[in-house]
Design goal:
This protein is α+β, with helices and mostly antiparallel strands and about 160 residues long. The protein has four helices and eight strands. Strand 7 and strand 8 form a beta hairpin. The chain is elongated and about 115 Å long. The N and C termini lie far apart (about 160 Å).
Length: about 160
């Protein structure tokens, strides 16, 4: 019979095995810490012409986006037509939504940031102030005009008189 090689444990090897299991080794063990997270520094702008809250809104606000709407003529007879002129600067949208005083919506293509839409006042519209609303992207603008009464047909009785 053959015996395996004798298993010899030296004092040094026993100490190496016992060290991690000793109380001193457990007390000195560091607890795992959460990983540090790094945040990229936010750029700061010092342009006094553009408020900081507008910078946070995005590119449209930085470029001073604007939307202007006008109505011509300013006084329209019931049954008459008027033009809505749109001027949009610094906006990405290529379409405008025109909302008539009656609530009808019209989609208008912008060319170079501007467009014109002709609308008609209903023949039975009452005289008074009316408003047209235009939306382009996240901008909204309005323009007011006045509706005046329709022309009354004057009766010409001279034609019907007997001669």
């Amino acid at each position: 019979m053959r015996f395996a090689k004798p298993f010899v444990v030296t004092l040094a090897s026993a100490a190496v095995l016992a060290l991690p299991l000793s109380g001193a080794a457990l007390a000195d063990a560091r607890q795992p810490q959460p990983a540090a997270t790094a945040e990229a520094p936010q750029p700061t702008y010092s342009n006094p012409a553009v408020p900081q809250d507008q910078l946070a809104m995005g590119r449209d606000a930085v470029r001073a986006a604007s939307l202007k709407v006008s109505v011509d003529p300013g006084r329209v007879r019931a049954g008459g037509s008027y033009e809505v002129t749109i001027a949009a600067k610094g906006l990405h949208s290529r379409t405008a939504i025109v909302i008539s005083p009656e609530g009808r919506r019209y989609r208008v293509a912008l060319s170079g940031g501007s467009a014109t839409k002709t609308l008609t006042v209903p023949p039975k519209a009452r005289p008074g102030s009316e408003t047209v609303t235009v939306k382009v992207g996240n901008k909204v603008a309005t323009a007011a005009f006045e509706v005046v009464g329709a022309r009354k047909h004057q009766r010409d009785d001279r034609r019907h008189e007997a001669k």
